[in-house]
Amino acid sequence: MSAPQLLSWGQYPPFPQTPHPCHWREMLPETLDALVRAHGSTLPFGNGRSYGDSCLAASDRVMHLRHLDRFIQANWTTGILTAEAGVTLQEILALAIPHGWFLSVTPGTQLITLGGAIANDVHGKNHHVRGTFGRHVRRFGLLRSQEGRLVCSPQDNAELFAATIGGLGLTGLIEWAEIQLLPIRSSQIDGQVERFETLAEFFTLSDELDRRHEYGVAWIDCAASGRTTGRGVYMAGDFATEGALEVADPARLGIPLTPPISLINGLSLRAFNAVYWRKHPRTRQAQRLGYAPFFYPLDGIHQWNRLYGPKGFQQYQCLIPHGEAEPAIHALLSAIAASGTGSFLAVLKRCGTIASPGLLSFPAPGTTLALDFPQSERLDTYLFPRLDAIVREAGGRLYPAKDAHMRGEDFRHGYPAWERLEALRDPALNSRFWTRVTT
Ligand SMILES: Cc1cc2nc3c(=O)[nH]c(=O)nc-3n(C[C@H](O)[C@H](O)[C@H](O)COP(=O)(O)OP(=O)(O)OC[C@H]3O[C@@H](n4cnc5c(N)ncnc54)[C@H](O)[C@@H]3O)c2cc1C
Question: Which Pfam families match (predicted)?
C-alpha cells in the first residue's frame, strides 16, 4: 500500500505531496538519484510543521525523512547529542530531560524534526538570550547529489554549513546532526504572567522582563481595536532551580476529522480573545508550570489545524526592525482588527541581537508578530497586500517557514543573500516556495 499524500501544516496551498519514505541513511543516494531521474527534482520533508509551501517540492515528490529517527551518541557530561535528522524535538526531550538537559532553543511545537529545525533555523522564546537553533548546531552530515556525503561545521565546508542553516532544505539532505543541549535542574518553569492594556505597555514590559528572564513572549488580542489595540498577556519565565526532571505525557485530545467549514470565524474569535484576556491577572503573578504547557500549548491538541476546515489556513509572520516596530505593529493590528478576521493565538516577541549563523535565517533584531487566518480569497486580494505594504515600509520581512503568499520582490529584498543560496543549491532539490519567490 502506498503512503498517504502529505500537505503542509496550513493545508494550504493544496498541493498534495507524494512521499518517498526513507528509513535508512544508506538508501538516500539511490532514492535521490531515482527521483531526480524520474521527476527532475525533489525536496526533503521532515514532519510537515511548516505552514505554507516551503516544505512542498516543486515536483510534488518529497523524500520523507521523518523515519531517520535513531540516536547516534549522547554525552550527558557535556550535553552534546548526535542524532539522525528525522528524530523529533519531542523524542530528544524524552531522552535528555531525565539526564538534566533541554533543547538550547525550541520553537512553539516539539513535533518537528532535527532536520526541519536546522533548515528553517527556528527560534523560540529565548531568542534574546541564545539566538536561533542553528547557533547550537556543532556539525551535521549533508548528502548532495553531486558531491556525495560531506561533514559541515563552522570549520569544515563552512559556506555550506551557513547556507544549510535556514537553507529551506535546498542545499542537500541533512542525514544527522550534532547539537549542544542546555543544562537544567528541573523540567518545571517558574513563570510570571501579567496582562497589559496597550502595545506601548508590551514594549515596556519586554524591556524589563527580557533582561531578567531566559524566556519571554506575549499573546495579543488581535480583535481589539481603538484604544485597546495591542492589548495582551505577557509571559516570562526560567527553568526552576529545583524540582523533578519529568518528561511530559503526549497529548490525549485531538480533532478526529476536518469539519466541513472552518470553526474559526469572526464571532468565535472576538469572544475567545476577550475572555482569554480577562482571565489573566491585571498585576504580575508568579506561576509554576510544566515545560509542555509553557512552550507547547498547541501540541496539547492533536491535529488542531483541522479546525480551519477543508480550505486550511495561512499564517502571517513578520519581523519589524527595532526602530520601526511599535508604529508598524500598531498599524498591522489595526488593519487586522478592521478586517474582522485573525486568530486565537497571535504571538508577539522581541528578537535579540545575537546574529544567526544561517545565510537566510529569519530572525534579526526587531519584533516578530505571528498569527493565523482561515483561508479565503480575500486574504490574498485584500488583507495581505495591506499588511505586506506596512511591513515593506518598515523595512521588515516575512518568515518563509510560515509563508504561502509573499511576493518574489519582497522575498529578494528581505533576504539579499538569496543569490548565494541559489548558487549553493543542490540542483536535485527545489521547492514550490523557491520557484515562486525566485522566478
Ligand atoms: C504549532 C507550531 C508552532 C511553531 N512555532 C514556531 C516557533 O516558535 N519558531 C519557529 O521558528 N518556527 C515555529 N514553527 C514552525 C516550525 O518549527 C518549522 O516550520 C520547522 O522547520 C518544521 O519542521 P519539520 O520537521 O516539520 O519540517 P518540514 O516542515 O517538513 O520541513 C521544513 C523545511 O525543512 C526541510 N527539511 C526537513 N528535513 C530536512 C533534512 N533532513 N535535511 C534538509 N532539509 C530538511 C524541508 O525541505 C523544509 O524546507 C511552528 C510550527 C507549528 C506547527
Answer: FAD_binding_4
